[in-house]
Input
Amino acid sequence: MLDYIDKIKEISERLLKDCSVEMVIGFRKGTLPMMNEPCFARTPEDVGQFVWDSNCGINLANYLTDRKERIGIVAKGCDTRNIATHIIENKISREQLVVIGVPCKGMIDKHKIATLFADEIQTVTENGEKILVTAGGKETPLNKSDVLQKNCAVCTHRNPVFYDELAAEKVEEQQDVDRYADVQEIEAMDTQEKWDYFESLLSPCIRCYACKNACPLCYCPTCFVDEAKPQWVGKGQDPTDVRTFHFLRAFHCAGRCTDCGACERACPVGINMRVFTKKLEKDCFEQFGWEAGMSLDERPPLDTYRPNDPNDFIK
Amino acid sequence: MKLVKIDKKQWAEGLESLKKSFRLLGPVKEDSYYSFKALKEGEQPDFSFLNTRLSPKSLLFPQSEAIVEYSLDERDEDHHVMKAIETDDSPRAVLGIRPCDAKAVTLVNLNFDTSEYKDPYWVKALAATTFIGLACDTPKSTCFCTSVGCGPYHEEGLDLLLADEGETYLVKILTEKGGNFLSTAGLEAVDEDTTLFDAKKKAAEAKIISTIATDNLKGQDILDLHEAPFWEDISFACLNCGTCTYTCPTCWCFDLQDEIHGKSGKRFKNWDSCMFPLFTLHTTGHNPRGTKLQRVRQRFMHKLKYFVDKYDQGIMCVGCGRCVNQCPVNIDIRKVCALMNDHKVDEQACAVQE
Ligand code: SF4
Ligand code: SF4
Ligand code: SF4
Ligand code: SF4
Output
């Protein structure tokens, strides 16, 4: 994917030069291994800082919410699906956007890679399918397929679902992936096992809200966790309140989550809270044949009413 | 100040016997990272960590702490009277605290223990605690302690400082509290001359490869920095999460929350973060720091300018690198500090009309 960057820069410069957009949103190189920082360019010169590699896992759709400018945005498959969701939910308009689609080959899991090495990681570089990690002065090659973010490993929409420009040839979509093995494992647990699993999963949570704030779907002007009248949930570290935050947030994402993985990536303590949203994503897929953000004109199943709904309870 | 040498085996035995008179808190490994926990019977601290994921500030200033309780039931004689919740102020020791985190305690103390106001919960916890530091012989690439008045063998805030030397610890006794700790442990110590200790200190300091400059911060004009053009660029990526402030050993802000069940209530002191919109929201609905840019600017201006001006003790950062390592979008205080320190007002720009 390293070779995408020339094209990304060329398109971005052109869009800024001919004033089709006022800003382009992309990534710049971070100060640490496996970290890139979302950034914007307002002039063709600013475009020079843009990078593209396997560390662009943050979902840039998150940076569009309620913006007023005309914007160019560099977007992977999942980002475009969240942009589509934003358009449907009136958080940005299609006319404001020039989508620079990036056919994605997957992002690498920084939490996982860090746990593979006892020493501090000094550098991480990539060469196609190989990820080269230097830790403790020693270089170790890893297969990218072994260290993909969990959601990328089972992603079936790597290509942008809609775009105005493309940064590269489309990639082949992954076939025969077992998308829901992780959810099925939890579904197979009995109630007590599930409860214990959730409890240990969430016990390191410091309630920093990085997961919710990294998610493009979580744009409510006041999140329910911050409401005071009524106060839906306590604000401290009581495990009941921590769980309530996670479960309720997941429900708010039902039928809207694209399984982009930004939430899990953002967590400073490496919690896979994504299993909650993924369960609901699976339910929407199985019960309504629905995958979020695949089209610009269909509303998600849970905010739609159809007179011919087959269920009685709704009539 | 005295330097002694203690055999590691004796040290471990000494700790075990100390558990009768001290609550011992030390780093333990959980999954892939380390955190400070109360050590159980037979449990030893694990000193093989570089730094803990969260700072040990929570040992004195917990993320959620119940401080008072009350009854709302008017049949109770003392209804609506706020009563302090009993805290355990028995002697405790924090084992293996890194010098940066120990210095951070002294910075937080500036806020919680002033001549005018004292936070009783903090003050009592601090008085009950002995701090046993562990010098850093293999600092991380993101440690910049030596630039901010600290260092891998820094002694501020510590009662003892341990340096690992093979089968032994070189132990610097820094306070009376520290000396008492050793004698309570019944540890036999051999007097040691300081040559080796000083050489180790020098070697560790040379391993700190990350540096920042803070020399101009004090001289900068507050309003110039406030109006500097770089804030939009710095704040763009920020998620306004609590990661940087919650993991920081020097961030001290908290919120008070009442939680009521039926007719009885408790008041909690919870960590808060200047990055959260709720932090400054007024009951009128007005928010003086309503935008992300304003909140990010506040965090860095507080650490790197307001604190500098108010206390004249350098910046409100000990260079532990936690926020650098854990920020989900890689906002790096070292970069921000350089922009602030190097900031020059563009003389060519039009002067504001008075
Ligand atoms: S819940 Fe997580 S995976 Fe789903 S859209 Fe939000 S950030 Fe992406
Ligand atoms: S990002 Fe992680 S620690 Fe922070 S609130 Fe979410 S799950 Fe908890
Ligand atoms: S500001 Fe960052 S580097 Fe400085 S003490 Fe806090 S967490 Fe550590
Ligand atoms: S600087 Fe980073 S860690 Fe701090 S609030 Fe912003 S995104 Fe979160």
Remarks:
- Chain B has eleven helices and twelve strands.
